[in-house]
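Consider the tokenized backbone below.
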């Protein structure tokens, strides 16, 4: 088939492509609306040395991931659970957490996902606050205060915003997938259709030139 033949097939069955694309868009939109919304709140902890020292700064870079792992523990989840009286298992609470170490900025980023926006923000704040207290307690054992590493709450947790489902993004993706499936369906139908509809079809299958046609 030549390029114009592909275009002719799509032009003849454009409505099939449109219907399948619309169905994909509507299906993805409906599925998104049926999902329970999950909100995300984010808080940052700043990690910094008590004095300007290159060696201490290098130590902080190597410890950032360790600090992130310390936050994502059953111990910290239990403290948050007890303080907020969430009445959920530590394993379930930890599933809602995402802890990341940002080396370039010496930050610990805590993301909390929850079906309740206010609860997500509360969990983020309490988790950061409890870890800050725990770290200060650990640092108090270091005799020389100049050798200590401080962890401070950078700011209050961000107001929780919708994290998923993203109805618009999902709908567009569903529509594009439907568009692709519609095109494939059109060419599949064309491949299965062995009837001859145009003079070009006759010439292609017979290998003979068309001399004339009978008017409708």
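A designed sequence for it:
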């Amino acid at each position: 088939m030549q390029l114009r033949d592909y275009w002719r097939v799509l032009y003849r069955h454009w409505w099939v492509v449109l219907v399948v694309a619309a169905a994909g868009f509507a299906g993805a939109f409906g599925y998104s609306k049926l999902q329970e919304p999950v909100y995300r709140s984010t808080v940052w902890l700043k990690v910094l040395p008590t004095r300007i020292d290159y060696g201490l700064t290098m130590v902080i870079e190597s410890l950032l991931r360790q600090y992130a792992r310390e936050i994502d523990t059953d111990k910290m989840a239990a403290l948050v659970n007890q303080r907020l009286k969430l009445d959920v298992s530590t394993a379930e609470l930890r599933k809602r957490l995402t802890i990341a170490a940002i080396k370039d900025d010496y930050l610990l980023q805590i993301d909390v996902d929850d079906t309740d926006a206010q609860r997500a923000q509360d969990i983020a704040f309490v988790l950061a606050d409890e870890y800050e207290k725990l770290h200060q307690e650990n640092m108090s054992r270091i005799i020389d205060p100049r050798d200590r590493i401080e962890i401070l709450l950078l700011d209050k947790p961000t107001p929780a915003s919708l994290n998923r489902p993203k109805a618009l993004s999902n709908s567009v993706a569903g529509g594009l997938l439907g568009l692709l499936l519609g095109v494939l369906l059109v060419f599949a139908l064309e491949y299965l259709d062995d009837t001859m509809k145009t003079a070009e079809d006759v010439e292609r299958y017979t290998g003979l030139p068309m001399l004339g046609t009978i008017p409708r």
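Strands lie at 38-49, 97-102, 107-114, 149-153, 161-164.
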